């Protein structure tokens, strides 16, 4: 018997490895190219790296810190994983980016596994779901950020996979379910529960074992949730006492409430991101692109009829209530829904599989195919080709679009070819849509890197601040500081936040050799004469001033002439204003 099982197990492993080909190697290669085409992105990636760096540099292994203060907005699991790599390889930004690529690959594998278990009688869904997941434009681009959500997605999908039945075992793996809930709670906090609670609570609607063993389903599920919460508290209680009373209050009370309910008062500025209740609904077509522009998807959803199989019921039990709850919550960001993107792809792939079985004409009709995406890609290619001719006269009234003009014609060829691919007839339509989506978003990321990345690269400012702190010069910033310079400059001291002219004058008087960073929407032309460094940042500017010089200017005085001209980055900025760097 043992001899018979060994070849069978080897065969299954071989089949599983073949099922990962070619989508997993393809996605990994594209993700690595995109991830390392430019540096960590402000403010998402740079803030995460700043917290990890301050924990590392200050040996704050329990409590996350940012700008010298305990950071109650995040829990520590991602930082610990970054630190694990730094212990082995030293402090760098390569390991955190490789981690994100790894998390993204695990996500696709988990989607494939979920589809295999939820749709055992429709193997096409397991083939399609990872292809469709890897082609989502927004999810791919956000996955390039060193952020918590991709790790959270892995925890959510892993926990939900524990609830799904296997051929050899119908009962969920409750211990692993609880451990993954705990990992998710340590990744993003209590919001983890919102991502997994509805498939569990509504289990009898989609899971036969849950329907037959309701008491055990809910009792053991509740124990698993308690295990996850115990893991969070095992960190939060000692961290709360270590971080002090103010940190403890934010961590246990205002941190979550400030995001859920608009208007909750906090003693510290909170990243709550309030939006109106329908914000997610109107954003859904963009979040699900390119599949939101594929007519066959909508027809497949529209023709679904009861009885639905367990996989479709699972997707609906997950998506509908969670979407409603997240819409009601005041704080909203597109990436808050990232774990549910996998559920949408399971729903869409399952609906198309049903369409292929029950409505052959609709499943093969060219007019329901990918031609709208193909036409859109060709139109986009024409616009890219015309961009260099339109940009010089500033007829587009957009520095972002005009900034892409120098390389746009090269990339127009790529989108013309993708458009032709999407206009093809015949089998493999889903893979053509997925491949075009993946390659198209890589092309846009590359175009951004070549033409607009300099507006996001804060390396010059970070290098200047690093040298200043090495010379024991104090550094301040006018406004809120998001940690964008700390990791790149390996800063060892906090940056003081200044909010008005009195703060600036007091800082200059206290630190006459200090530096002050400003972040104006429009370039202050005096900066081209008196500042130490000027560089563009997104749609605004970063200026670094000698503290006394800025204080004099704000007080209406004429400062002393600087010993040297400011550094202007890039050089073309200074030339445009008649200055030399």
Automatic annotation (TrEMBL):
Coarse class of the protein's main subcellular location: membrane
Keyword Ligase: no
Cross-referenced Pfam families: PMT_2 (PF13231)
Keywords: Cell membrane, Glycosyltransferase, Membrane, Transferase, Transmembrane, Transmembrane helix
Residue ranges of every copy of the Glycosyltransferase RgtA/B/C/D-like domain listed in the record: 75-235
Membrane-topology annotation of the record: Multi-pass membrane protein
Annotated transmembrane regions: 20-37, 101-119, 131-148, 174-202, 222-241, 277-299, 311-329, 335-355, 367-387, 407-424, 433-453
Protein location: Cell membrane
Record's keyword annotation contains Transmembrane helix: yes
InterPro entries: LipidA_mod_glycosyltrf_83 (IPR050297), RgtA/B/C-like (IPR038731)
Xref: PANTHER family: MANNOSYLTRANSFERASE YKCB-RELATED (PTHR33908), MEMBRANE PROTEIN (PTHR33908:SF11)
Name of the protein in its database record: Glycosyltransferase family 39 protein
Species in which this protein is naturally found: Dyella acidiphila
